[in-house]
Amino acid sequence: MPSFEETAVCRVPARTVWKLLHDPNRFVDWWSGLVRSEPGSHGALIRADYAPEVEVPLRINPLREGSGVMMRCLVTDTVYSWQLQPHPQGCLVRMRVDVPGSSDEDLIRYTRASMLRSLPRLVSAAEHAERADRKGAGRRGG
Amino acid sequence: MLRARLFGRLAIDVDGRPVPPIAGLKPRAVCAWLLLHPGAHARARLAAQFWGDVLDTSARASLRNVLWTIRCTLDAAGGSAYLDADRDSVAIATELPRRIDTEDFDRLTGLGDPAALERAFALAEEPLLADLADDWVLETRDGYRERVADLALRLADVHERDGDLRAALMWTRRGLARVPLRESVHRCLMQRLAAAGETAEALATYERCAAMLAAEFETAPSAPTRQLAERLRRGSVRVAPGTGTHPLPPAPAGRRPSRPELPLLGRETELGMLRGSWGRARQGHGGVALVSGAAGLGKSRLVTELTEYVEADQGNVAAGAAFELEGAPPFGPWAEVLRELVAETSVPPQDVAWPADLARLCRSVERRWKRPAAPPPTDREQERGWLFEAVTEALAWATRERPLLLVLEDVHLADRASIALLTHCGRRLPRLPVLLVATIRPAVARPELALAVDALVRRDALVARIGLDPLTAAQTAQLVRAAAPGLDAAGRARVVAAAAGNPLLAREAARAAAEGSDLSDGLRAWVRAPLARLPGSARLLVDAVTLAARPVEQGEAADLVGAERLPAALQAACREELLDAGQRRIRFVHPLVREACAAELEPARRVWLHARLADVLDARADRSVAEIGRHLLLAGRSPEARSYLVSAAERARALGALDEAATFLTEAAHAAAGTPALEAELWLMAADAEAGRNRRESYDGAFGRAIARLEDSADWAGVAGAYVARGRCMATMLCYPPESTAAHRRALTVIDEHRLHTPELRALALAGLAWINAVSGDLTRARQLIDQVEALPEFADDPVLAAEVGLARAGALLRERRFVESQQASVAAAELAADAGQAVLAGTALLQAASTAVCRGALHEALTLTDRVGRCVAGTRLAADALADQAYALARSQRQEEAWAAVLEELTLAARAGADQEANAAFDAGSIALQLGRTAQAVEHLAAALAEPAGQFPRALARIRLAEARLRDGDVDGADTELDRLPFETIGPNDLPETFVPHAERLEGLIAATRGERDLALRRMASAEAGWRRMLHGRPQGDLPAAAIVDMTRSVVAGLVEPGLELGRVLAERAALLAAAGRAPEARNAAQEARSIAAQLGADGYRTAVEAPMVEV
Q1: Is the ipTM of this complex over 0.90?
Q2: Do B1005 and B1017 touch, CB atoms closer than 8 A?
Q3: Do A67 and B984 touch (CB under 8 A)?
């Protein structure tokens, strides 16, 4: 089964990233290639830019070990794991993607490219949310 | 004609053609049972006898499969007609010619003439069904052993009457060999020996009897036996040399003088700490003291010093040691401790229940306190809880007379069950006059021991932690001088260097150096000379204790070497400083010495000794089947070993020791390699045990092996049965619904493809699929499947299956939000289960009904139902969950004092059950306290729950509630810190992680508001509000209760999420914030919607919860 991993340091508390990973409504904020996402009976329903007319169910489960979340695409059987670890600068985000061996080369290539773009976007979205919070925290009036 | 031999191993032939061995333990056991019990037997009775702990339908399916195996095996010798089975009953045909050796035995003993009696004796020389070890087999075997002994004694009487005293003596001896603990037979032999003029041998018999009674029961012979011996002595008959001179074993009260002790050096501080802990314990403030150190550093010696101090201080002492035998029985060291404790403690009152639970672990309870063991509860978790509580009660009872010192040695070797019990009892000791000293070798300690220590620290129950360092060179030299006074300075220096600060090595090296041995050879070489000096019986004793791998009872030692030879053997072994003898047990002076002696044992002698140990232990009333199985395995007697290991697993399961049960079964399965049917049977049993431990990977491994063996043997009914069992396992214990569906489907496919006539399996597979679809799949399909199951004739025969299907129906209705009908279906299922005597299933169904009642806001009905759960399964985990539901319903009904009383009752119940349930109860208590506004108590209980890793509550939800409790208690930074920890909490698949984000954002909003960060607060509240609205899926306000999400496997405190209530709460809090920000119109809108939600939700509790934050609006 082809798989790839990537890690990134995010300069915000883990809980900011954790909220982004647990909220299907906000997947579009960071998941590259997603045009729509919302909660679904298995966890989430997503639509990707290469086939926006197809609604794809995504099963969301917590990771068995450590902190993080595992998302399994119920159509392609691709598994996306996101793990968070404490880090002196904020938190370390470890992404792992397992694509089924039977997948065609195009899907593997597309998945790799989009997920490698998604990790920095996730980091950026979390840092942006934190900056916005800090700005809000500075203003005490209504 | 069918001829069957049950004495020895089961062997059958038909018209002289041998029937091949029946494959599988269960088929063989069922066949043996049918042969032993002539006549027709109802299938239901037979199924209950052999598969008592599963559904009736499942038991009948297993019986059908087993009967098929028996029929096929008999058919191989043309004897299938002998299995007479119809729809209702089963028998080994009695109208066809048959000859069973047990029936011959009965007939011959009934005839009564000597020739017939001798033939009966010859028939029964071997033990009954030697290759089976089911409990009923062991009991029947003991019964036959007694009958054979009686038969021999009858023959002795006959020969005595005929004047043939030689023959009378021979038969008396044969009888005595089978009932060596029967004093009257010893006396009879003495009389006959005296009559034959063998007074010396008669007196030697008396000594053997006295030694046996002392070793087994710590008692002396009765007055008639003593008087007979006295008359024999007065008869001026010369005692032959070598008899009558053995020293008798010690009087029960006295401690046997053991090897001379060397001074305790370098451990004064540690001994002082232990004495201090004892001083506090005897005042009622006990606890656990941990003594750790490498092998030979003096842990045992330190404990011995403390023991002597405590005995001099009028304290009671009970000690046990973990077995060094791999695969030892569960609770081994505790069983030893309890045996001593029961012997030393007065009989508890008859109206307390705990001794009957304790009797399952400690057989002395039955003998000494006359309290038979209570049958184990069907709920395995409950079994462990009751057992642990019984042990704690026993400790408390023992301290009514004297304070107590418990010693558990070598806990690093202990089984998991023993460590769990240590943790459970240890936590209660700070309120008891009990000091528990545990010794460990840290280098080999296991992770569960570290967790146990952690749990004790958290409960302030670890009163001393003593680490032993090596002795200094000066201290070692002092010890060497004491051990070998004649050694010169150079020799002493060599010994000190060789010992490296280890007192045991220093002592042994000093002795070896004094004998001129080369110190570079090490301990193994140092024990060679003492071993070589031992006479035969002493060497046998040392070797047997070596391989027993635990302290040996005096009675066991007497059986091994002969009661009359034991005292001299023991004296010799103690003189050589190899063994040490306490009041009842014989042990090595140190585990390292045992290891050295073990290394000296020749392989052939090992095998012989393991077989001897197995036979000796098997003949004892308090036999440990786990140990026997282990020794048989090491003796190369695998077929017998398998049966004992399976029996050991069943006993371990009955004590709630699932880890040990899984180990025994896995070993038995490995030992069955090459016999596919048996291997498959054992792997399936092992898989079931692994499921009980919640080990998915191990389960899959064992299941895969079982299926491979079944497919190899083309046993398709077996394959279908295995998949049905897997489906049930995946739906219940392991909780993988898709896997359960796949397994049930596979079972149905196998049944259809191979055209199997297995209606029970079909019913079970359909019911399993129905249940899965009802709780998490297609509801239409679920209803179709339920209808299919209910149409099967097998369904009508099994009220428990009907109850389970009823629960499935209730689950389906709940998913459709048809709360009233779901509640009714649950109650109906509970009644069916209760009528069938299935209290746990009835309690589960009632609890589901209660939770449903809470969901629909019918709080009064919920209270009535939780009361019924409490009555149905009093004192169980379900009862604790019912109390939590009750507290929740009461809190919502604004009955605050009653709610808190229910919480306290749950906490009390859980404190008796174990760390995991205690943590669950703490979670419930903290959650209810938060609801009741008892914020300090909420913080206390939720923090306690989260500190316990064994808890099975939703940890992330607990962290969120703890954050809220801290915030409401005025600790804003603390609340923020708790939220920071949230991402690192374990989240289970049923924990509804999608609800955590709105929960967390609401709290972040409240924290920001408290810090005056109003914009951020409003943003967070808006985000939380949006989250809860999404979860309502645009549901109209009149239908808000129907939006509740409930996990029926938990109490509502942990498993109920009400998006409507949460939305109302957030709106109310946001309204207050908007009002404070001067955004009056928005505040009014939010407040209005919040009030409207409160009105829709109805109950006062809802309204108060929603309205409370709106006071300022």
Answers
A1: no
A2: yes
A3: yes
